[in-house]
Design goal:
Number of domains: 1
Strand content: 15-25%
Low-confidence stretches: none
CATH superfamily: Vaccinia Virus protein VP39
Strand order of the largest sheet: 5-4-3-6-7-9-8-10
Structural class: alpha/beta
Largest sheet: 8 strands, mixed
Shape: globular
Length: 228
């Protein structure tokens, strides 16, 4: 089957899942496991209940939605690019561990409509298009640069839909994030400290600093590092 992305590879991010992604261009990495594990409270002192309804904003290849579904969540994945949605649906058909628990839709975060969930997750674009060169790869540019929605817009949509919003973001972007009637409830950093995962909640509150236990996350999701 031909693809608008060019040659594809298919990876198994966890047993029972198969995810198609371009051989060149934007590809997922460790941050997807960090986001899923952090959102589910894997490796934390107080594990959380698995949320029944999850909304992913900017689903891309669909890997985060598929991983969450494999853990028992019912997930809606929203993505503005219909070609990414078609690819994510193709992955879903090859992923028995998630089948029947994920629905991918073409939706733009700038015109979201009504939604309700127990948890929103997102790995939004971080970089300001005015701050430097933009990748010539159209999809890599959309994934990394705020061309079709800012981090603040993703967060605002998330907080309107759910009491908890888990976001992958860079330290400098978090520092200027506009939070009206919300706060950072939890925060953890990937190795190196430049990129982290944060949980935002409605209302005022304090921030809990957590360690990101990647080995515990990999074990819970049954992923073997080095198999991608």
């Amino acid at each position: 089957m031909s693809s608008p992305f060019g040659p594809l590879s298919v990876e198994s991010p966890a047993p029972g899942l198969a995810v198609f992604q371009p051989q060149r261009g934007y590809r997922w990495g460790v941050e997807v496991y960090a986001l899923v594990g952090f959102a589910l409270g894997i490796g934390t002192p107080s594990p959380m209940m698995v949320p029944a309804r999850v909304l992913e904003l900017g689903a891309g290849s669909g890997i985060v939605s598929l991983l969450l579904a494999s853990q028992g969540c019912r997930v809606r994945g929203w993505e503005r690019d219909p070609e990414w949605v078609a690819l994510a649906r193709r992955s879903l058909r090859r992923s028995p561990a998630a089948r029947g628990r994920v629905r991918f839709s073409v939706r733009d975060v700038r015109s979201p409509g009504n939604a309700a969930a127990d948890l929103v997750v997102t790995n939004p674009p971080w970089f300001d298009p005015r701050a430097g060169p933009i990748s010539p790869d159209v999809r890599k540019a959309s994934a990394r640069t705020m061309l079709h929605g800012t981090v603040d817009e993703f967060v605002a949509v998330g907080l309107a839909a759910a009491p908890r919003v888990c976001v992958v973001t860079r330290a400098e972007r978090l520092a200027v994030l506009c939070l009206d009637d919300a706060h950072v409830a939890r925060r953890a950093w990937l190795p190196g400290g430049g990129v982290g995962v944060v949980e935002l909640r409605r209302g005022a509150g304090t921030t809990v600093e957590e360690a990101l236990d990647l080995p515990a996350i990999y074990a819970a999701l049954r992923y073997q590092p080095g198999t991608m």
